[in-house]
Design brief:
There is one protein chain. 47% of the residues lie in helices and 16% in strands. The protein contains ten helices and nine strands. Strand 3, helix 7 and strand 4 form a beta-alpha-beta unit. Helix 2 packs across helix 4, helix 3 crosses helix 4 and helix 9 packs across helix 10.
């Protein structure tokens, strides 16, 4: 009860600030954070330099600041989400590729939607719910109970359910067998035990193999989705075509090839809009040398 009250108080306080002013405040705060936090600034610049070796330091720095501005806008818009309805959401977002969703849904095997920490991914989740596309969102539980309550509420208020990672595989399989839809972010670094090393911007990135394992086990449709900020300030939610799952007698090989295919789609969208990706994360933290490769 206390956590819910704190959540609602935070929402009311920030939502009372006009959105234009809120965006400006959060962008200014994040640019200040860019200059103050050397650790995160260097992580961002290092990641961008490795991903775009052809770009000059001036270009890299410009993209890095854009990343922080985008994050500031994303945080500012976070408090606008509870006011969205199916009637007014068109002022914020438009959908592209709904036919791909319909085609995947018609297969009757369930859908594994995946995306990345790109654009305003929380707004994308809320918009899917308002479009009557209800998901079971897989997420990593936060250590702070107040933040955990805050984020879980945001992700479920438009009709989604949230499932913490860890020990949920059997439940997810059952949901997919019942033609349900799963949503998951698959672009973060994982330990070598959990992942498979695939190419991401020319470097081996340890990426979860559980997503590909679910696709192989259930035959669910795998559909990438991304939310792209437009120059107008509105968003376009792009639902891509289903990615065909590679199946052979080599299970480990299938895990690699499918995970690589999923990651390549993420790289394509990030290359197009590099300042809309969350480059503050240490995506290449796990090294192949840790397992003697």
């Amino acid at each position: 009860m206390k956590k819910t009250l704190i959540t609602r108080t935070i929402l009311v306080l920030f939502a009372s600030i006009p959105i234009t002013m809120r965006r400006a405040l959060f962008q200014a705060a994040l640019i200040l954070f860019y200059h103050v936090s050397q650790k995160h600034r260097l992580i961002t610049i290092h990641n961008l330099t490795c991903a775009f070796p052809e770009k000059s330091l001036v270009e890299i720095t410009g993209i890095a600041k854009g990343v922080y501005r985008n994050l500031g806008m994303t945080l500012a818009e976070f408090f606008e989400i509870p006011s969205l309805t199916s009637q007014n959401m068109h002022h914020w977002v438009e959908f592209e590729g709904l036919e791909h969703y319909e085609r995947a849904r018609s297969r009757g095997k369930g859908i594994l939607f995946y995306t990345a920490h790109f654009g305003n991914w929380e707004l994308a989740a809320a918009s899917f719910g308002l479009q009557n596309i209800r998901l079971h969102i897989i997420y990593r539980a936060l250590d702070n109970p107040i933040l955990e309550n805050f984020v879980a509420w945001f992700r479920s208020y438009t009709g989604h359910s949230v499932i913490p990672k860890g020990g949920a595989s059997r439940k997810i399989v059952e949901l997919l067998k019942n033609n349900q839809m799963i949503g998951v972010l698959i672009d973060q670094n994982v330990s070598w035990r959990e992942g498979v090393f695939v190419d991401f911007f020319g470097r081996p990135a340890s990426t979860t193999k559980r997503f590909a394992a679910l696709a192989l086990q259930t035959e669910a449709a795998v559909v990438p989705i991304f939310i792209v900020r437009q120059p107008t300030g509105r968003y376009k939610i792009v639902i891509n075509k289903e990615i065909e799952t590679t199946r052979s007698t080599d299970h480990e090989g299938d895990l690699f090839h499918n995970t690589q295919a999923y990651t390549a789609v993420i790289e394509d969208i990030v290359r197009t809009y590099p300042d809309q990706y969350f480059w503050l994360h240490q995506r290449w933290k796990t090294k192949t040398t840790q397992i003697g490769v």
